[in-house]
C-alpha cells in the first residue's frame, strides 16, 4: 500500500470516526477512481449511518460501481436497485439518472441488454429533464451502445454520433473515449474492421492518458477481437496479453475469459 493510499484511507477513517458522513462517501468515490479496488470503495458504505437518503444512496452507488468494475455484478445490481428506491423517495432526479446509468452498464456487462436499454433510456430522459449536459452525453452513448448490442445499428450510430458531438462541445475527454469505444463496437458488428480498429485504438489511448485501467483493458479486449477477425494473430495476442496484465493487477474476474482466449490462439512463429 502506498503512502498516499494509506493517507487517504486514514482521512476516511477520521471522517467516519468524527461523524463526517458526507465527506466519507466523497472520499471513497475518489479511491474508486484512483485505486480501482472495491475494498477501498467499501469504506464509503459506512456513510449509511447518515439519515440523509441521498447520501446513503450515493455511497451505495459508488460501492456498486466498484463492485461492477471488478466483476461482482450480481451484488452491484442489487445495491443499485435498492438505491433507486431511496432516490425516488427523496426526489433526487439527478441521483436517479446516475443510478439508472450505472444499472444499464452493470446489466449490459451481465448480458441483460434489454433491461439495460430501458435503464439507459430512463437515465437519458432524466438527464435531459434536469439539464445535465455531460450526463446526457453518457446517456446517449449508453443508449447507442445497447442498440448496437441488440442489432439496431442505425439507432446505435445516431445516438453515439450525438454523444460524440456533445462531448466535443463540452471538451469531455472521458466522454469521447467511451463513445469511441462504442463506435468501435458497432463498426465491428458491421464487419468494418479497419474502422473499428481505429476507434478502439483512439479510445484506448484516451483511457490510458486518464489512467482508467479498467476501461483501457476492456477496450484492448475488443481491439483484440477486431484484430482476430482481421487475421492478425500476433497483434491479437499482444492486445489480449496487455488486457490480461491489467485485469490481473486489478483482480478482475474477466481475466479468466482472456486466459481462455489466449490459450485458444494458434502459436505465431517468430
From TrEMBL:
SUPFAM superfamilies assigned to the protein according to its UniProt record, in alphabetical order: TPR-like (SSF48452)
InterPro entries noted in UniProt: TPR-like_helical_dom_sf, TPR_rpt
Protein name listed in UniProt: Tetratricopeptide repeat-containing protein
Species assigned in the record: Glycomyces sambucus
